Amino acid sequence: MNDAVSPSRYQLAEIGALLAEPARAAMLLALIDGTARPAGELARAAGVGAATASAHLKRLLEGGLLAVHEQGRHRYYRLADDDVAGMIETLAAPRGRPVLPDPTGGDRPLRTARTCYRHLAGRLGVGLCDALLQQGYVLAASEGMRLQEHGAQALVQAGLDAARVETLLPLAGRGCLDWTERRLHLGGPLGVSLTDALLDAGWLRRRATSRALQPSDDGLRRLIALGVPWESGS
Amino acid sequence: MNDAVSPSRYQLAEIGALLAEPARAAMLLALIDGTARPAGELARAAGVGAATASAHLKRLLEGGLLAVHEQGRHRYYRLADDDVAGMIETLAAPRGRPVLPDPTGGDRPLRTARTCYRHLAGRLGVGLCDALLQQGYVLAASEGMRLQEHGAQALVQAGLDAARVETLLPLAGRGCLDWTERRLHLGGPLGVSLTDALLDAGWLRRRATSRALQPSDDGLRRLIALGVPWESGS
DNA sequence: CGAACACTTCGTGCCTTGACGAAACGTACG
DNA sequence: CGTACGTTTCGTCAAGGCACGAAGTGTTCG
Lengths: 234, 234
What we know:
Two copies of one chain form a homodimer.
Chain A: H1 7-19, H2 22-30, E1 37-38, H3 39-46, H4 50-62, E2 66-71, E3 74-79, H5 82-92, H6 108-112, E4 114-116, E5 119-121, H7 122-134, E6 138-141, E7 144-147, H8 149-158, H9 162-166, E8 172-177, E9 184-187, H10 188-200, E10 204-206, E11 213-215, H11 217-225
Helix pairs in contact in A: 2-3, 3-4
Chain A binds a DNA duplex through residues 21, 23, 38-40, 48-56, 58, 72-75.
C-alpha cells in the first residue's frame, strides 16, 4: 500500500546491479584474496578489452566495492574492505545444491589453506576456528568474536610474538562462510591480524601463483599443538 | 590468463541480476519477515502492474530465491529459505556509512523486536543472543551455534515446554547481522525454532500490521530472568 | 452457469547498458 | 626528448530487459 519507497530497496538493487555483470563478478572474484591487481590484469581475468574493463572498474569504485592505489602508470585495484570480501564469498557460495566435490582435482591446495580476502580459509582455516572456539580461546558474542586472555596466553606459549598477540585483544572477529567446507572460519579484523601473525611467524607461506597457502612443517606442528584437527594425509 | 571461466562468476552474476531490479528488491524486502504474500500485494509493494510483477516473481522463483504455495486462485510467495533471508538482510544493511538514527521515529517498535525471516531480531534478538552466548547456553563452532544440555535445562526452567526444547538440541544456529543494531542475533534453524517456541509460549506476540513483535509482561520478565539485558524504558 | 476475480502468458515499444575501436592522457625508459 | 606502454575517455552500435495492454487460464461466488 503505502510502503511505497523504502530507501533500502535501492541500496539492494544498486549492489545487485554491480554484481550482475559476469565481467564485474569475475573481477571481484579475482580480488577475493585481498591482493591488489592492475587494471590490465583484471581485464584479462574478466575476458574483456581494456576500455570495457576500465568502465567496469569505475563503476565498482564509485559503488564503494573497490579501492584504488595509483603507482606510476599502473592503477592497482583491490576490494574496499573485508565486509565486501565477506559479502562476495557468501554470495558466491553455492546455495541449495551441494558443492561439487573437487571436479578438476587441481584445487586441492586451495581447499587445504588459502586466503579469503586477508584471513585464513580452507580446511586449515575452519580447523583453526574450531580449535579456538572449542577451547574457549575465542568467545562469540553479539558484537563479534573476541580473543580471551587465556587464549592470548596459549598463542604466546605456542610460539607467537607476545607484543603481536597483545594487539589482537581489542579486535572483533566475524564468522565467514567457507565455500569449500561450507562451515565458518574466523574473519573480520581479528581473523585478518591473526593470519598476518601466522604468516610473519613463518607458520604459513604464500604460494607464488595462487592464493593457496602452504603450512611449514614446524608451523603445522604448532597448529596441531593448539588443537587444530589434522590428518597427516596431504 | 587462463583463469578464463570460473563457474562461480556466473553464479555471482546471476544472483546479482535478480537483485538488480528495484521492483524485485522491493518484493524480496517485503518478504523478509518470513510471511507469504499473494502476487497482487507484492505488485503493489513494488509499484508495478500485475503483469510485470508476475514476470519478476517468475524469475525470482526460477532463481531459487522464492518458493510458492498455491491456494485457490491465490499464489502465495515467500522466501525460499532463511539462507536467502540472511543474505538479503546482510546486503540491505548499510555498508560503510553509519546507520541513520531513527529518522522517522515511527520504527521504534521495529527496533525493539521484530522477525527477520522467521527468527527474532532487533534489540531483544541481539540481547537474547548475547545472553545465551555469555552464559554458555549456546556455543559457537565452525559448523554453527549449538544449544548445550545445560542451556536446554535453563530454558525449561524458565518456563518453556520440555519436549519442545528437546527438539532444539540437534539444530544449528547462525549469526545474522542486525541492520538496526549492527550486531549479531541468532538465526538459522535453531533461531527459527527457538523464536517459534517463544511465540507459542506467549512470551512474544505478533503485531497485526507490521513485522514488529510485542513482548508480553510475563514473557519479558522470563527473558530478563534468562539474562537478557533490558532497560525498563520502552 | 455466468460474472468477477487473481494471476499468467503473449506481443510490442522503449530505454538502458555493455562491447569495441580510436583517440587522448600521463608515466617510464632509452 | 621521443617512443612505448598502461589506462582512461569518447563515440557508436547492437542486444537485452523492463514496462504495459490485451488476451488466456483457472477459481470463487451469486
